[in-house]
Design a protein that fits this description.
By secondary structure, the protein is mostly helical. Helices cover 72% and strands 0% of the residues. The N and C termini lie far apart (43 Å).
């Protein structure tokens, strides 16, 4: 029997949230307060808006943490 589209969407959403949580852990921020984490993400979002150089810098930093160079 085929799962409903709503069930598929919920599973996809859950998987995405688990992956995002893994990024927090990988960054060494697992034990920080949620308010701090959200503040950091909001600040980063604001700094990225219209700033391609900052986007590229942070992308390179993340790629290095994943064990491969960007580009």
């Amino acid at each position: 029997m085929r799962r409903s589209d709503a069930t598929d969407a919920r599973k996809k959403d859950t998987r995405e949230k688990i992956e995002l949580g893994g990024l927090i852990a990988k960054a060494g921020l697992r034990y920080e307060k949620r308010a701090l984490l959200l503040g950091m993400l909001i600040d980063a979002s604001d700094r990225l808006r219209g700033n391609e150089a900052e986007r590229e810098r942070l992308t390179a930093l993340g790629a290095k943490a994943f064990g491969h160079e960007s580009k």
